[in-house]
Write a structure and sequence with these properties.
Layout lengths: L5 H4 E4 L4 E5 H8 L3 H15 L11 E7 L5 E7 L1 H10 L2 H29 L6 H31 L4 H14 L12 H8 L3 H10 L9 E2 L2 E4 L2 E4 L1 H9 L1 H10 L3
Antiparallel strand pairs: 1-2, 2-4, 3-4, 5-6, 6-7
């Protein structure tokens, strides 16, 4: 994968300080002209806007830049979801490499940002200090997984048969860990403590609700690290929505 300066590539936008990547940088990553990519994104936005449940701004944020002539041109700022959308439109090696590249960029930025906070002592003490430290460690685990993915891509490139190349590319994609968004990733035990149940019951309902990915894989709700599965805040919200059913199930078991 090419090396990109995360401090220059990753930008903030809006009051929420959402992390985004400029479409000009994305065009370089996927090997397209910027005009071609903008045309594709225009079409994607048109498709997304046909569904009232989807908000295209969650994927692509319209922006502009000034060329050397002083003329303004349209560009887009892509969120992590927008990058994932583009990656899903790419096939084979190109899609795998772009996925590995943008995931690594977001992860590296978070690792550097949280690392600087810890090194500079800018964190609130007590509970928040521990939470940021845990998040920093989790991001480091993600970096290691993405390094494995990069190695698998290189091995795949050396395979003579297409089926073996694709097998390595698929495994590389499975290895990728996406950045933790909207806060910390937590274990079943931590969620069980919040809801007043036990870790076994949380694991069971994680599968029932489709929040727990197969062993060794990740999903939008969490990821595996070693033998432990970590849920993110999206998953926690789902558990909260089904709290009564989960706790009642626990009581029915007599636990």
């Amino acid at each position: 994968m090419d090396n990109f300066d995360t401090d220059k590539i990753i930008k903030y936008v809006g009051e929420s300080k959402q992390q985004v990547i400029d479409s000009r940088d994305v065009a370089k990553m996927v090997g397209k002209t910027h005009a071609h990519l903008v045309r594709d994104i225009d079409r994607y936005i048109n498709d997304l806007d046909q569904n009232p449940k989807l908000d295209s701004d969650q994927f692509f944020i319209e922006s502009s830049y000034q060329a050397g002539t002083g003329k303004n041109y349209k560009c887009y700022l892509l969120t992590k979801q927008g990058c994932e959308f583009i990656a899903n439109k790419l096939t084979g090696r190109k899609g795998t490499i772009f996925t590995a590249t943008y995931v690594s960029l977001f992860n590296e930025y978070e690792a550097e940002h949280n690392g600087k906070l810890i090194a500079n002592g800018d964190l609130n003490l007590q509970r928040q200090d521990l939470e940021y430290h845990r998040r920093y460690v989790a991001v480091k685990e993600q970096e290691a997984a993405n390094k494995r993915a990069e190695l698998l891509i290189k091995i795949g490139d050396r395979q003579e048969e297409e089926r073996y190349r694709q097998a390595y590319y698929t495994e590389a994609t499975n290895q990728l860990m996406f950045p933790i968004t909207n806060g910390l990733a937590v274990t079943a035990g931590a969620i069980a403590e919040q809801l007043g149940t036990n870790a076994y019951n949380i694991g069971k309902w994680g599968q029932i609700l489709g929040l727990k990915a197969p062993k060794g894989h990740r999903s939008q709700y969490g990821y595996w690290s070693g033998d432990r599965y970590y849920y993110n805040e999206k998953a926690i919200e789902k558990f909260q929505e089904h709290k009564k059913e989960i706790v009642d199930d626990d009581n029915d078991l007599g636990l």
